[in-house]
Design brief:
The chain has about 280 residues and is an alpha+beta fold. The strands form four sheets. A four-stranded mixed sheet has the order 2-3-11-4. A hairpin with a 5-residue loop joins strand 6 and strand 7.
Length: about 280
Amino acid sequence: MNLTWERHVYWGAEIKEDPPVANYDDIMSSDDGVKHWTALLVGISSFFWQIGLLTAIQQSHGFSYVDGCPVTTPATSSLLERIAFIRPTHYGGFWDFTSDLSLKDTAYTSLALGAHTDTTYFSEPAGLQMFHLLSHIGGEGGTSLLVDGFRAASILKRKFPEAFEILSTFKLFSHASGNDGIHLRPNVARPVLNVVSSNTSPREQTLYQVRWNNDDRAVLPANSAGRDSEVSVDAWYDAARKWVDILRSAESEYWEQLRPGRALSNIIKNMLDNQIS
């Protein structure tokens, strides 16, 4: 089986030296600024072809900083709306928060989190998300981590093809619960690595989505009657361990201290993020 990731530039820890950056004023003042920003995120050809603005094919990184953003929630919200409307969730649409545990979620704490993709408990996870650190006066911590999930999957496929096969076929649920009146899970179980086969060549497959959040993962069925795979639970955990080892490697982890005025936007389907206390 051949695996492809169209228009995506693999990157690791070395991207710290030259991360993709767009400019707030350019984005807010012109469609060309929006075009540059979205090209860094998803590639021009996959976004602008639909609205007739295709001028070139540019590969994507799956994330981008936006420098020069005013340090306010309205300015940050308006920045996102240059691409599309903001999707409402059980947290709200656009919101600011601190580590006060006002909602029962690890994001509302100062606990360090492992690399993960967000909203795995939705049937269709959110596509684009943004983080903007609005205040960090005399504080410590708050360092953020990004990992290229597509790069990690390509390494897993090359080094441990059986583990890749397990994580791309064994389906499992995620869930969100703990807050009053809220219990969410997808309409169907999904694998960690989601691939689609070519119509003309079944052996040609494209990875289109990573769904990995160990904190939101539901329990695995202990017997084959409760799942649609003959793979054992032990085999899945062995594959997951290999996957996590790649995610946690020094070559994969890109650490950065966010700062007011620099917003971080990333595509959830292929980018894993975290926070550290």
